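[job 4471] stage=fold_predict status=RUNNING
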Amino acid sequence: MAPGRRSSTFTRLLRHGFTDASAAERLLDGPELAAVRDDPVLLEALGATADPDLALHGLVRLLEAQPSPTARRELLDTLIAAKPLRDRLLGVLGASAALADHLARHPRDWDELVTYEPRDLHPGVAEFERGLAGAADPVALRVAYRRCLLSIAARDVCGTTDVAQTAAELADLATATLRAALALAEAAAPEDAAACRLAVIAMGKCGGHELNYVSDVDVIFVGEAADDADESKALRSATKLASHMMRICSETTVEGSIWPVDANLRPEGRNGPLVRTLSSHVAYYQRWAKTWEFQALLKARPVAGDPDLGQEYVAALEPMVWKAAERDNFVADVQKMRRRVVENIPAAEIDRELKLGPGGLRDVEFAVQLLQLVHGRTDATLRSGTTLDALQALADGGYVGRADAVQLDDAYRFLRSMEHRIQLYRLRRTHLVPEDEADLRRLGRSLGLRTDPVTELIREWKQHTGVVRRLHEKLFYRPLLDAVAQLASGETRLSAEAARERLEALGYADPAAALRHLEALASGVTRKAAIQRTLLPVLLGWFADSADPDAGLLNFRKVSDALGKTPWYLRLLRDEGAAAENLARVLSAGRLAPDLLMRAPEAVALLGDGDGGGGLEPRGRAQLEQEILAAVGRADNAEDGVRAARGVRRRELFRTAAADIVDSYGTDTKPVEPDQGALVDRVGGAVSDLTAATLAGTLRAVVRDGWGDTLPTRFVMIGMGRFGGHELGYGSDADVLFVHEPQEGVAEREAADAANKVVAEMRRLLQIPSADPPLLIDADLRPEGKSGPLVRTLKSYEAYYRRWSLVWESQALLRAEPVAGDEELGRRFIELVDPLRYPAEGLGEDAVREIRRLKARMESERLPRGADPKLHTKLGPGGLSDVEWTVQLLQLRHGWAEPGLRTTRTRQALAAATAAGLLGAEEAATLDEAWVLATRVRNAVMLVRGRAGDTFPTESRELAAVGRYLGYGDGHAGDMLDAYRRTTRRARAVVEELFYGA
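[job 4471] inference complete, writing structure tokens
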């Protein structure tokens, strides 16, 4: 042959799918295959396998292992002459290196693949028991098990059985193996066997008759005394037998292991006894079992040992399984467990996880089991432990849409096929899609993808996981709509009772009302109803994830009724991924945000603006002021101008509240904001800026209406308290001081009258009853309090502070900051009060004692009667007042020397004090954590109840909603309160040391 030329055999090998044609050519030229190397039948058969190179290599090893030339010739002759053997043997060798190893160790086991009788096509437990019957020890049992596995794999790779039948055969083989292992254990300890009755209950995939090639076999053991034997002795005997049976299956010998037997699904898990009596099992499940344990019992099936005892176990526990959906937080518990499984997957593996990853096998299984537990209470046809059988029953009963069921069935079969073929290669327990190109090629070819195996495999895999991800939540909610909407012909309607059960399981307190809302939204043949039917299954799930699903659905109906005729509303929710979820979160999180939205539903548009939710970003003070002043300028009079300003305020309050809720709850596209302090700062800054802009606009409207362009006196508002500190909450009043200075040539009386008229009119206009929330102006921090004049000149403030100022007023002025009006006058006021709030050389000891006395008196006198001090966010120990007074004392004492302390903001001052070494970093972190938490609680109370409050709500749903906002799931309100007490207790200890000098 000329140099560089390839043989025709080499080319044929490449054409038949060999990747290493040179090595294949050498093997075909070897003595083992010399007699058949030119036979086209052999090459065609090898080319049809998943991995022709692997199949050829395995065949040569099998031929080499034959005990004699005659045996080798018999194998070759049968291989060429009998197509069933050729397809089966080469199919297995091309898919499984592990079974090729078995055949090389046991070269006559290829005989198992010759038989092709009808009874051989779908063997059951009895046939497998016959196949294992000769195994007299654990090693022989392993050999016999692999021999049976060989025939299962052959039927699988040749397409004689589908993936569901293969999984059922693997479960039947496991059943026969458990029985054989128990028989070996009983033969080794006949006295133990005689002393007890032992039943082996299969769980998980074995119990569900859908086992993998390599999987833990989950079991639970039930033991009773035989005849009149002593119970404790009988349990010890049963435990010995169970342990020995597990070792026989699990231990590694010269023939490897079969599979691990896992008994950790038993009551109390690995901490509980391996074997319990039936009465002990029943007592545990009646008193202590968690939701997931009843979910696991869906697949319980007696497989070995005493059959009567096994049936008694199932009969005793089955009624409890079908009552599990009545437990509190049932759906939330199941969904939480699914999320926890995903969260525990290593980040590097999550995209390759066939079983546990998003869109994987477990998503289908969890969705099906959830529906079974909800509806299996009243429909016994749903009580199957096998996922695909249960899915078909759910579709037949109308609990799942037929099209959805078909798509999920297809996806589940494809993913299980991938899982089977991945495990079959090395017979190793794995659910990870390989990364190596050769492994992906073999996997793709094993599934019939031959043109471009790797590309086609990845495309189909991603397509199926995408289907599962899209459907697994929808599966639960979609039929609720079909119960009230028009269905396609041939579809079965979810009954009203079944819909009610499902809504109750989701946490809806009034299922009948919820169904009425769904009917109103989704009935009919209009395009609007069709879009609603697309949206609502997902929205129902998001509502159910809140503390008050009923309110979420009711509010959604109200918004939809208000905006139903606008062309952009449903289009926004349908087309912008973030908008629908943002709306669901906002509508079900409490009263404030929905109330703000109902007053002007078009604000829904803010929830969109692309997947990033850019419409919820807070707007700056300058931008707000510009919009409000422009609106005031267009108004005909002061009342119309302030109405416009209040409308902007309402819209922006909604924007701020919606962003806060979305950041606190998290969405599919935006995780929960981990920095709680940032959330507090964002809300405080946004509400404070909005209040300042609203006051500026109101001032402009009042002055223009009464005096034209120029007021007879210069006028400025000074923000105080939380307003000056940029820390306003949703329900905060605006604490201010009013300062004026007569214009040149204007009499003081005239100027004072004008200033007072401005204040009175501003307060009136901002509190006129309307669709917009009022803005209350509080001037009680002025000199002389309520007894003093409402408005003073700058000179009057100067005279007062020089002669009469008290230490509490210096403390209050720490938060003073101009917010609206004459900027130059505001600057001069700050220059006036700086020496008071940052006194040279700091506070004297008398002043410090006075502040401590005032604080102590406030704690004892101002706490509302009946309030729990430890849960009062403002006045309770470790609450807002404690932290703020501690920080303010540091500012009064050291602000003159530390410029960083000269800020109106609590957290900034705390950070500056830490940087200056006035307190330790750990102490500062403790105070900051308590202040942030208390502020978040106050914000949560306002969001949930729609009115301000300083204590946790007492009503359970409201308390749960506050908990959800703070990151606590259903049923964890107690944990939230404990965490609050713990956090504030630590803060109070720091306050005792820093403020009181204890």
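[job 4471] summary: The chain has a mean pLDDT of 90.
[job 4471] exit 0
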